[in-house]
Amino acid sequence: MHLLSLSLVVAFLLAGCGGSGTVVKRYENEKFRAGATYSRKVALPTRVVCHSVKRAMLSQGYLLDQGPGNKDSPLLVGTKSWQPENDVAVTLRLQVTCVHEGETASSVFATGIEESYKLQEVTGSVSAGVSIATITVPSTSGRALMLVRRETIEDPQFYARFYSLVEQYAKAEHDSEQSSLAESDSPAKR
Hints:
alpha+beta
């Protein structure tokens, strides 16, 4: 009985040292509103705008994956990585979807996520035992990149720069198509 009560006291003490117990609930402050940072309407055809999204990401060094989607709303995921210090790695993931809004308009939705990794010691252990006697001995150890932070980018300027580059590419492509059409319709070409 004395051993049982001692075990309970030790368990309660260990449980009290387990952490702060406070969990931040970010979703409680989430505001769902139109025209938020994560979207921009572009007054050009979807084909031109979606192609320009791809060009904008590639021009900035992102590696692209085309995710599930359909013809009218493709999903692109771009990844870019840095190693600012020997034991730190940072990855920026930009997920973009184009949505057809009519013959002359499209919406672009973008979400950026920044992940930080740090090289940390990883240890393992080996346990051996028979019946009620078990011995645990530390074994191999090594170093591995471990995720230490993941955050959705909320900076409006980050998205404004991205949308500005998309619009720049889209306008240039649209203007080029229009001048090609005008040249092919001119009387000198007939």
